[in-house]
Amino acid sequence: MKLNRIGYPYLIWLGIFILIPLLLVTYFAFTTGDSQNFSTFTFSMENFEKFMSPIYLGVLYRSVRLAIISTVICLVLGYPIALIISKEKPKIRNILVLMLVIPMWMNFLLRTYAWLTLLGKNGILTKALSFIGLEGVSLLYNDTAVLLGMVYNFLPFMVLPIFSVLTKMDNNLVEAAEDLGANRSEVFWKVIFPLSLPGVITGITMVFIPAVSTFVISGLLGGNKSTLIGNLIEQQFRYTGDWHFGSTMSIILMVFILASMALTSKFDKEKEGGGGGLW
Amino acid sequence: MVNKNLKRLYTFLIFAFLYAPIIILIIYSFNDSRFRGDWSGFTLRWYVELFKDREVIRVLYYTFAIAITSSIISTVLGTVAAIGIHGMRGFTKKSILNLNYLPVLNPDIVTAVALMALFRMARLQFGFITLLLAHITFSVPYVVLSILPKLKQMNVHLAEAAMDLGATPMYALRKVVIPEIMPGIITGGLLAFTLSIDDFVISFFTTGHGISNLSIYIYSMARKGINPTINALSTLMFISLVALLLIINNRSEKSKKIIQERR
Fold this sequence. Notes:
The complex is a heterodimer of chains A (279) and B (263). By secondary structure, chain A is an all-alpha fold. Chain A has helices spanning 8-29, 46-51, 54-86, 90-101, 108-119, 124-131, 143-168, 171-179, 184-195, 197-213, 216-221, 229-240, 243-267, and strands at 31-32, 42-43. Helices cover 72% and strands 1% of the residues of chain A. Chain A starts with 7 loop residues before the first helix and ends in a 12-residue tail after the last helix. Helix content of chain B is 81%, strand content 0%. Chains A and B meet through helix 1, helix 3, helix 4, helix 5 and helix 7 of A and helix 1, helix 3, helix 4, helix 5 and helix 6 of B.
């Protein structure tokens, strides 16, 4: 039975909708001209030179810095909760995991927007802060607000893969370590944490990639002051109309992400998913 | 004991953090004032206005039309593709799997501008069709990824046995392979639907004049302030999804009990 033949139409589909578009973006990145008219395109490195100015490099640096900070916060907040949930009885465990997923059923723009209400001038959090004496603290339209939005939106993506590795972990290993005289912190740092690394790495990639490329969270919570690389790309394609420069930034972002993932996967000894994936 | 309470408190705080905006949204859908952060009494008028607002109804129609159509098409395409990929070997399999992974790993915004460039080159009119094509493109890889593990778990000899007993390949596929991988197909389909309904970035770049899904509509309103009818609409959608989940959960619990009693 030649069942494998029925996979070829999908190969063609992937070629048309995945490969060719990426090649097109690459082509745009290395050319200049009128974005609407293909015949005016000429090969040029101008866009890359333009990106190498302090303004654009600064934006890239800001995006990467915020993405790294939010990933670290997600890991620090998310790991304990994954550990707590994984130690619950199966019934409670399922409910808690479901409760992690349920918020995603409300439109994420709207959930992010709701933070405006919480953080705004008359917001509950602002009032609570002024109640304890921190008057006039601005919570909105700055980097802290953007960070909060990132952590809020991507925290479940950190917890779920770590949780799925922790529940599959062989508990006998933990008991063996305890029997051999390891104390609680030794058990955690020498047994549990190293075994959960595949989940941690999946979690890091699942938080870092959307965080570094977002333009919605910074657009809604960061105001005009907080421009990230995603906002620049959005502007080029939607408003300025310079698709060439937009493509250049997309390519730089993509290469940067692929490179950082190659770097993290070096730490990931278990290939073929290793149970760390969400699927 | 202290330790246990500390864990409880921590779990509570994390979930409070995750649910705070949702609770706020639901509360403000009953707020009489148009402005957020300003409570002026309980009202149901946003729920009434919701059904009168033709713009909102249109947006809702497009959101569901795109989500249903794209999830059905990508489930079918993804199932066929996964079965095909499962039978492939070597280089072809590796390259098709890597290509399949690209949209999963690539930031949404890169996939979005790439598709925008493709549609522009193909001179397609930006609108419903481009939006649909884009949604299928980003959904199929997830469908394939949720079906492939099920195919791996399947006993390889099952389909062969069926054919030895006289089934044609198509019949074996329909009666043996498809039922075996059904859980994967359902997961993939649901995933495709959820991704489509919640997508903003890719839709934002691939849609055309007059065609908006819920996310695009919300984004376009965000600067001037979001109409409370949207809060009402999302509250309704959210509550019906949770209710649906509870019903399904309840049913499967009941059927589990029945099975246990029969034993």
